[in-house]
Amino acid sequence: MDDAMPVTGNPIYRRVLLKLSGEALVGEAAYGIDPERVKAVASEIRDAVGLGVQVATVVGAGNIFRGVAGSTKGMDRATADYMGMVATVINAMALQDALEKMSVPTRVLSAIHMQEVAEPYIRRRAIRHLEKGRVVIFAAGTGNPFFTTDTAAALRALEIGAEAILMGKKKYDGVYDADPEVNPGAMLIPHLTHREALERGLKVMDSTALSLCMDNDLPILVFNVSRPRNISLVLRGRHVGTVVSCEADGGAD
């Protein structure tokens, strides 16, 4: 799509959960947080809020620390996972700072109590924040080791009654039939079901999160969050990336 073309139309979702990988905040660096990249993501979220959509977010921590990677180097898995959860709070605070500098009211709700920097996660409080037009950032995963932020995203989306999960990828435009890192000829899949993704082992979300979405008929919209205005396009029902749903055809335009 031409970046000069206006993005028009009303949103088709009332409430969504945006899942961002930690790498989405890195920019061109190898690790850490790039303030300009965070600002760009925050700008996209601000535009979504401007459409009247209630937006919740879960941010990963791969740009700082991965629990699984730590455990493979001899660290206790539970300890490594808790370290990863704490790292997600750092990313959540960076995103909150960028949003509030754009005059977007934002609340960080953490599954691990850190009362000096975040509110504790309480489902009814999260929903109330959303109803008041605030962006809610869920931090610290599920608060339990051995669960990924993908699972946290699926769980929180269901708890708050989100109508879809928006899965923002840093480099790729959606779900492919093979790993594009290994196979440059991998083809983008426009539509597939949760069950197909599980059976084929495709990289959408981890199997626990994907099963949770399948069991509760929650669609997942996978797209490249680095491309300007993709979030707004997805919210307006434009087909961008891959639609994962219980039907063979996701139904997007």
Brief overview:
The protein is of the alpha/beta class. The protein has helices spanning 35-50, 67-72, 77-101, 123-131, 149-160, 194-200, 207-215, 230-235, and strands spanning 15-20, 54-59, 106-110, 119-120, 135-139, 165-169, 175-176, 188-189, 191-193, 220-224, 242-245. The chain has a single domain, classed as Carbamate kinase (3-Layer(aba) Sandwich).
Structure commentary:
The chain has 253 residues and is an alpha/beta fold. It has one domain (15-245): Carbamate kinase. 36% of the residues lie in helices and 18% in strands. The protein has eight helices and eleven strands. It has helices at residues 35-50, 67-72, 77-101, 123-131, 149-160, 194-200, 207-215, 230-235; strands at 15-20, 54-59, 106-110, 119-120, 135-139, 165-169, 175-176, 188-189, 191-193, 220-224, 242-245. Strands 4-3-5-2-1-6-10-11-9 form a nine-stranded mixed sheet, sandwiched between helices. A two-stranded antiparallel ribbon has the order 7-8. Helix 1 (35-50) links the parallel strand 1 and strand 2. The longest helix has 25 residues, at 77-101. The radius of gyration is 17 Å and the shape is globular. Mean pLDDT is 90; it is low at 1-5.
Q: In which order are the strands of the major sheet placed?
A: 4-3-5-2-1-6-10-11-9
Provide the domain count.
1
In sequence order, what are the helices and strands, one letter per element? Answer: EHEHHEEHEHEEEEHHEHE
User: In terms of per-residue confidence, which ranges show pLDDT below 50 for 5 or more consecutive residues?
Assistant: 1-5
Please count the beta strands (DSSP E, at least 2 residues each).
11
**Shape, per Cα inertia axes:** globular
Based on the structure given, which CATH architecture is correct? Answer: 3-Layer(aba) Sandwich
Largest sheet: 9 strands, mixed
